[in-house]
Amino acid sequence: MLRELAKEAQVSVGMAYYVTSSLVQMGFASRDESNRLNLTDPYRLIRQWAASYNYLFLNKFSEYYTFDTEFEAFLSRLTKLPERVRDRYALTLHAAAWIIAPYVRPTDFHIYIHPDIERKELATFTESLNVSPIERSGNVKLVTPYDEGVFYGSKPVNDVRIVSPIQLYVDLFNHPGRGEEAAGKLLEKIAKEWRAEEVVRHQ
Which terminus has fewer CB within 10 Å in the chain: N or C? Predict the structure, then answer.
């Protein structure tokens, strides 16, 4: 199982062992009779991760500006990106939350960009979105993530690629501008989906 976890997370087996052992020691996970790892309280684990995570501190931001005054107009640009850059980004924060669990209407866009994106690809991306660089206070933030793991589980929703619900919750939790409220609403949706999956597994 450790090798499977290491492969999935793209880390060494040693790192997988360290993390899983730590989860067991802290009471977030346990092992069954077959030594299979089970999370004992995934909600507490997610909340603790979110509480210790600072999106604004950990990541690097490049400021851009869009003249699109309507949220939906900018989203439509994301749905029409050229194929070569369609999987090089993931939307996060309130704009992403609005797509899957609307609560706080977004006023800006935070977009993770793959750290290894080539300069030509980045130019294609910004040109397709029709955004212009600005020194500060842009309404579009292109985000270089502290770790490529932020893209794990990202997927298109209505043709817009967004981070996984778990990553989105963590990003929102400590973010100003009612981020914690939006995170709470998102967690309600996540919990509902998990319960539904649990019911299906036991049928």
Answer: C
Of the pLDDT bands very low, low, confident and very high (cuts 50, 70, 90), residue 133 is very high
Is 104 inside any structural domain?
A: yes
Length of the chain: 203
Per-residue model confidence as pLDDT tens digits over 38-55: 888 888 899 999 999 999
* CA 163 – CA 154 distance, rounded (Å): 4
Hey, what amino acid is at 29?
A
What are the backbone angles phi and psi of residue 60, rounded to the nearest 5°?
-110, 140
Residue 201 amino acid letter: R
Assess if residue 198 is contained within a domain. no
Q: Which residues pair with 169 in a beta bridge?
A: none
Domain limits at 123?
A: 55-188
User: 20 and 37 in contact (C-beta within 8 Å)?
Assistant: yes
Q: Is residue 196 part of a domain?
A: no
Instruction: Tell me how far apart the alpha carbons of residues 108 and 139 are, in angstroms, rounded to a whole number.
Output: 5
Report if residue 47 sits inside a domain.
no
Q: How many domains does the chain have?
A: 2
* pTM exceeds cut of 0.85: yes
Amino acid, res. 99: I
Structure confidence at residue 73 (pLDDT): 95
Q: Residues 109, 22: one domain?
A: no
